[in-house]
Design brief:
By secondary structure, this protein is mainly alpha-helical. The protein has 2 domains: 350 residues, no CATH class; 137 residues, Transcription Regulator spoIIAA. Helix content is 65%, strand content 6%. It is built from 24 helices and 7 strands. The strands form 2 sheets. It has a 5-stranded mixed sheet with strand order 3-4-5-6-7, sandwiched between helices. The chain starts with a helix and ends in a 5-residue tail after the last helix.
Length: 544
């Protein structure tokens, strides 16, 4: 009994410590992302509080810490820019995205993230990291942030002629702190918090003339019910789908990381449903949306968090910090937040892959760079979609190239003298052909071409070794092969290894074209059949 009580106490202590640790990390990130999106620091902080609390209570049992993340901030900022900074419309889109997440949780699509190739994820994350860095260079030198990477780069060349050196000083000091604080200290107090406190104090102490967060509301958010006409909902649907996909993908990826650390399985449908409800609540409070955040979740787990209690403790700590230090928070310079975001952007970049890039397969690099450039300069969702399609096509090509026919001739000493004179040309005997590799739409065309030189063969034993059934392209290709061989007066003996494939070929009348008595489940049976048929024909003196 005592040991059980002690174990529960240790779990609770770990959850409390994990919640505090994740809240400390979340504070500067929520403020910075709130400013970067155009919603304001308060919206970022309230979004982190509301989403983490709601998703923590309703979500999975593991310590999943939620809030606004880099990809979510970039997408939200892009939507704000597209809609001319119309916050009310964006709030409606956030609510729609939350509803779409709930609908998504009722389908099997929540499992799809497991099948997204690593180069797609890496290219996307690298792109997001670079976007964050580019967007924060202007605020770092004392100018307003822009939501477009191309506009930011164009404006940068103009802004360099009018640098605010107070802002630049604070920005450089922030970067020095976040990058140079030793790891052993960073484990205790995050370098971003150290930079936030020191640089804000320096700004106040020396009276730096820089843009600040200014007023941040400590009042509880007002309840909002987004209103829209049907036409507006239709127009905004594309934005809502984009946001819902990013929110869900981020959460599912964080779920996979959490599973690998805790060794506890979590239900992805449950996770996405809870996130969807949380984001609807964020919209109704006029706060920013978010997802399960990998960095904060990992920090909580490493601090000892074991259960969802950590996800409830974290927003309570943020709430305490908001009410207790709102005056100090209002004095935080935007240049300091820009420096913190640049560090976050750097951390998002997949440095591990960059180190081994020269050894990576070319196909992986093609996918990575396509996703990266589309993410940075065009559209995040298009980038991921294009990456998945390109990766699938390259994989299909590789699989198709590996599919081939393996031929071997069966020789029988009992065949007639006529056959013995053709020893050097085995095409005049029984031939066994194995289809190796996957026979599908990608490999079908190549395999058909390999059947074109079968003239003179009497019995072709076609052995399909793979246990899978065929897609429709392969079915038609299989039928084409049968017709071509019949035109060459070649008898086909089909060897298959499962009943489902037999049923599939039967439904498409391919078995009927071959002949039921020419279908076998054993290659040896097919060979014996071919030998006996040759012997019978030889005895009758038939010429071939």
């Amino acid at each position: 009994m005592i040991s059980q009580l002690r174990a529960k106490t240790e779990i609770l202590a770990g959850d409390v410590l994990g919640g505090i640790n994740s809240a400390i990390i979340a504070l500067p990130q929520a403020l910075a992302f709130g400013v970067a999106t155009g919603f304001g620091a308060g919206a970022g902080l309230w979004g982190a509080i509301i989403l983490c609390f709601v998703a923590g209570i309703l979500g999975v049992k593991t310590p999943m810490i939620s809030g606004i993340t880099g990809p979510v901030a970039i997408v939200t900022a892009s939507i704000m820019h597209s809609l001319g900074m119309d916050i009310n419309s964006v709030i409606l889109i956030i609510a729609m995205a939350g509803i779409l997440q709930i609908i998504l949780s009722m389908t099997q699509l929540t499992d799809i993230v497991k099948y997204v190739p690593y180069p797609v994820i890496s290219g996307f994350m690298n792109g997001v990291g670079v976007i964050i860095i580019i967007l924060q260079i202007n605020p770092l030198i004392g100018h307003s942030a822009l939501s477009s990477t191309i506009e930011s780069v164009q404006k940068l060349f103009i802004n360099f002629s009018s640098i605010n050196y107070d802002a630049l000083t604070l920005g450089i000091l922030t970067l020095l702190i976040v990058f140079l604080v030793p790891k052993r200290i960073n484990k205790i107090i995050p370098s971003t918090v150290i930079a936030l406190v020191i640089c804000t104090y320096v700004s106040i102490k020396f009276g730096f003339e820089v843009d600040k967060i200014n007023a941040i509301s400590i009042d509880f958010p007002k309840f909002i019910i987004p209103h829209a006409k049907f036409g507006e909902i239709v127009n905004y649907l594309q934005y809502a789908i984009t946001l819902a996909v990013i929110l869900s993908s981020e959460s599912l990826l964080t779920g996979l990381v959490c599973e690998s650390l805790t060794k506890d399985k979590s239900n992805p449908k449950h996770l996405i449903a809870a996130q969807g409800v949380g984001n609807i609540c964020c919209a109704m409070a006029g706060a920013l949306p978010g997802s399960a955040a990998t960095m904060r979740t990992v920090a909580a787990i490493k601090a000892g968090a074991k259960t969802k209690i950590a996800a409830v403790i974290s927003p309570l700590v943020l709430l305490l910090l908001l009410f207790k230090f709102s005056g100090f928070v209002a004095e935080i310079p935007l240049a300091v937040l820009a420096g913190i975001l640049i560090k976050i952007g750097y951390d998002i970049i997949d440095v591990k892959l960059l180190k081994v890039m020269k050894y990576a397969p070319k196909d992986d690099l093609y996918v990575l760079w396509v996703v990266f450039f589309l993410t940075v300069f065009y559209n995040l969702i298009v980038a991921v979609g294009a990456g998945i399609v390109l990766a699938a096509l390259l994989y299909a090509k590789k699989t198709a190239d590996s599919a081939k026919l393996v031929q071997k001739t069966v020789y029988d000493s009992d065949v007639t003298e006529l056959e013995k004179t053709l020893d050097e040309d085995y095409n005049h005997k029984i031939r066994v052909v194995h289809i190796e590799g996957q026979f599908f739409f990608g490999s079908a065309t190549q395999l058909i071409a390999q059947f074109d030189e079968m003239w003179g063969t009497k019995y072709l034993i076609l052995n399909y070794d793979v246990l899978d059934t065929l897609d429709i392209s392969a079915i038609f290709a299989f039928e084409d092969i049968v017709l071509r061989l019949k035109d060459q007066r070649i008898k086909i003996l089909l060897v298959i290894h499962n009943e489902k494939l037999h049923e599939q070929l039967e439904k498409h009348n391919i078995i009927k074209q071959i002949g039921e008595h020419h279908v076998f489940y054993s290659e040896l049976d097919a060979i014996d059949f071919a030998k006996n048929s040759l012997k019978k024909k030889s005895k009758k003196g038939k010429q071939f």
